[in-house]
Design goal:
This protein is α/β, with parallel strands linked by helices. It has one domain: TIM Barrel (Alpha-Beta Barrel). It is 32% helix and 18% strand. It has helices at residues 76-88, 103-114, 142-153, 171-181, 219-232, 246-255, 265-268, 272-287, 291-294, and strands spanning 6-8, 11-13, 17-19, 39-41, 58-61, 64-67, 93-98, 121-125, 159-163, 185-188, 192-194, 211-214, 237-239, 259-262. Strand 13 (237-239), helix 6 and strand 14 form a beta-alpha-beta unit. Helix 2 (103-114) runs parallel beside helix 3. The radius of gyration is 18 Å and the shape is globular. The mean pLDDT is 96. The structure holds flavin mononucleotide. Flavin mononucleotide binds next to strand 6 and strand 12.
Length: 303
Amino acid sequence: MNNIETKLGKLQFQNPITVASGTFGYEYSDYVDFNKLGAIVTKTITKHPKIGNKPPRLFETSGGLLNSIGLQNPGLENFIKDELPKYRGFSTNLIISFSGSSISEFKEILLRLEDEEGIDGYEINVSCPNVENEGLAFGVDAKIVNKLTGELSKLTTRELTIKLSPNVTDIKEIAKAAEDGGADSLSLINTLLGMAIDWKTGKIYFKRGLAGYSGPVIKPVALNLVYQVAKTVNIPIMAMGGISNWMDALEFIYAGASVVAIGTQNFVNPKITIETINNLQNFLEEKKLTIKNLIGKANMEEK
Ligand SMILES: Cc1cc2nc3c(=O)[nH]c(=O)nc-3n(C[C@H](O)[C@H](O)[C@H](O)COP(=O)(O)O)c2cc1C
């Protein structure tokens, strides 16, 4: 293993840098050699195409971004036909993010993807409403997360990552439920819930009221949740939440992440992933350190 290599469950990563679902479409191949990333994580796909939410969809805050995209995606079959062939061409790990509105729909999507070659893993987005549970998000209920993970893990030998929502009372309980259900790894955090109101008129900015909050401002929250979850489970973590440079990436690795994903920062600097990999590599070489030896080594020592 060289000093920047790492692992996420069953997957070997040439470096720990990947991208957060929904923030890094195929168009980024104009700026970034995808082969150089640790993995590619796709936008969440659903069984049927989704046109997404009515605009406005984005609102910038100081240090953060609110989004209300509404899982716009071409749907499973169009994804397989039009997008998967393009992604398959890359030598790095390919992780497909998907979501369903019931456990049976999640299973159906996974089984359909199992027929397709060139996929290394699945990131299960549990932040969507569950039609079988009064529309509550799957990810807020430990029992349902456990059941969903258990059902999906029986159907695949590919890497199974459960992406956790931070909008819960105790994320550790949900993390444990996913681990007990057979998840190979966990991914966290999805966006925090937020909203925007115009102070001049009192008008609520987003049509749905709520939006997902991301970007540098959420980093301390994400760091704490990753640290807490890492102490609770024995499976590896893919961390995201406000990572903007190689130093942020390193902090998450110290907190217990084996792999880190860059999200919102891709909108600010489309080459941030590659810059982060290069800077991290230089740092590790200069200090003669390896990623493997830094994972979970956050400490209280005076240095
Ligand atoms: C515009 C936008 C779209 C997103 N779409 C998805 C998505 O489709 N699926 C998903 O699991 N997370 C989605 N996310 C959440 C990110 O993957 C990530 O978990 C979150 O933004 C925190 O990381 P960041 O602060 O680096 O962006 C989206 C985030 C943004 C900003």
